[in-house]
Task: inverse folding
């Protein structure tokens, strides 16, 4: 499983539409409105890097009007109190 945090800048008038569109993407498990340099932080959990690439390279910047900029942080290791792969249906 690949986990990434995608930090997103949004055109303010389009915030509600952008939130709705991001949450509709398969692989986006969480979306948080945040304070600071970015407007949103999306948690993406997918089976492989190809799926992650499709989301952050194609779907977010090209298919969702209102996204101005993204920054993707790919997790090298993840720890949790639960079995994340099982919880999100990504166990092989």
Result:
């Amino acid at each position: 499983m690949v986990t990434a945090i995608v930090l997103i800048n949004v055109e303010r008038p389009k915030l509600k539409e952008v939130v709705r569109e991001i949450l509709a993407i398969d692989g986006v498990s969480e979306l948080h409105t945040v304070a600071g340099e970015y407007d949103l932080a999306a948690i993406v959990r997918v089976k492989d890097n190809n799926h992650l690439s499709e989301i952050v390279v194609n779907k977010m910047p090209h298919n969702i009007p209102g996204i101005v900029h993204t920054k993707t942080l790919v997790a090298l290791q993840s720890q949790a109190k639960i079995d994340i792969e099982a919880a999100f249906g990504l166990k092989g």
